[in-house]
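Troubleshooting log. The previous run stalled partway through. Resubmitting the same three chains, unchanged.
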Amino acid sequence: MSMLHVVNKSPYERNSLYTCVGYCRESDTLLLIEDGVYAALAAGKAAAKLEGLKVAALGSDLKARGIAEDKLVEGIEIVDYAGFVDLVETTDRVQSWL
Amino acid sequence: MKLTIQVNEGPYQHQASDTAYQFTKAALEKGHEIFRVFFYHDGVNNGTRLTTPPQDDRNVVKRWSELAAQHNLDLVVCVAAAQRRGIADPDEARRNGKDADNIAPGFRISGLGQLVEGGIQSDRLVVFGD
Amino acid sequence: MSEIKKFMYVNRKAPYGTIYAWESLEVVLIGAAFDQNVSLAFIDDGVFQLTADQDTSGSGFKNFSPTYAALGDYGVTKIYVERESLEERGLSLDDLQQLTWEDEDEDYAEKDSIRLVSRAELAEILAEQDVLFNF
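Second attempt completed without errors. Output:
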């Protein structure tokens, strides 16, 4: 079964992202929301953790935090809340790494 | 898709309630069914009608009440967590000897079984928290 | 009869500093009445919830750690503890409570509920679950 892993805290505050990536399997998607979007900053140390993963980020949370798309790691899919709902539907389960 | 939403945090302190609200709204707009929204831990504080947020920002509680009215949503506040944190409806207030109740429109107080049932009856459980 | 779902309660936070550990247990206890296929996972600081010798007498709040020992009576037989989380925190199984359940199919033989698993193994187990609770 494929999983949607949702990370909502910054990797510089909490270890949720670091633990989560150890649980990501081939068919899974990682969605960054709320403060979790800071993980997508290409220049940040946490960016390396996203390598090889299928990653999405909530656009409104990036915008709220003033993060321009050109600052992000390559290959991230920016979604809105409708896209978030779609991700829940197209994966089999949701795991919230709080 | 039939969804149960779990909200673990109160209004304003964490973004969880905001994200849960926007997600729920988007799911409804896409024609999905919201089986239940279950408020646990400090999430029960989303169910007080006594908030007076500043006029220039969102009214988190009212927003949930309005969404519930518009879509006939089942917003459930966990009774054990609510008792701990002082959220009560008229029955709870009377039962526990309190001189007031504060539950917001559209919310009802019930047991943890409602969350478990949500997990059983829904296609997905989506948890928002800290 | 409706299908039985695989319920996983994921615990990643330490006890007492926040209420999540205790209120998560309350869901497990109530949930037992619904006869689903239940397991618990302890990852990251969640492993601290299971340590033995918790004593809250100087703190003024309730010591709820005995509740873990009662889980066997609530039909909980699968308690997954992540090995990497234990090791990172300098703990071993010896530091944890010994949690058991009684197998009525084997003359009520007492069996260990705690299963020490690697992150990779627990990832596979998580992927099989129908409902994932997080607190």
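Takeaways: Strands of chain A lie at 3-7, 29-32, 55-58, 77-79, 93-97. Residues 58 and 86 of chain A are 12 Å apart (CA to CA).
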